[in-house]
């Protein structure tokens, strides 16, 4: 049940990605260009995108099914922001301990086989917690992390899957930054497929996950764009 080692590894990777993306002083709450960073707003907006993967609308696509694969991808994106919020307010060891304890306390048998609307409400609980503009104490971060892990449970996203997809998305995010994402020149749709989809296709062909191999394969695919 203890995931301290994996969480520590992901925190280290997130810190490196944030420094590359936002500058060495990103923990101050601003990027190197002076733009304000609000990790909780990021969580709120990604949760809204996650909820739109459900057929919750009563006026449109009423017979649609839940795009659970995208729900899981959005949860991994939210995890990036939750790790960042933790690192902004605590040392890496403190953040790892808080997140690990939140994971250990988050399991809830009542979160199985829920209706679409109840699942959406579980995700909305995470959004509601992120909307609270209070000081980020250890108890607040823990409570927010618990809502995140419960959202993962609803989406049947096991921690091992979260870890693997996070590692892959971290590589993809680095690839994006290396190829003009911040400048607005990066192409996100590759011959009709989003880069996320291409990433998953590459991973499925791997016998053993390798970040270096994934980056090389992404580079090869990207170079073939018309």
Overall average residue pLDDT: 94
Question: Architecture of the largest domain, according to CATH?
Answer: Orthogonal Bundle
Biggest sheet descriptor = 2 strands, antiparallel
Task: List unreliable stretches of 5+ residues.
Answer: none
Rounded to the nearest angstrom, the radius of gyration is 18 Å
Q: Order of strands in the sheet with the most strands?
A: 1-2
Strand-pairing-aware structural class: mainly alpha
Beta-strand percentage range: under 5%
Task: Describe what you observe in this structure.
64% of the residues lie in helices and 2% in strands. With 226 residues, the protein is mainly alpha-helical. It has two domains: 153 residues, all-alpha NTP pyrophosphatase fold (Orthogonal Bundle); 57 residues. The protein has a two-stranded antiparallel sheet. Helix 1 runs parallel beside helix 7. The longest helix has 22 residues.
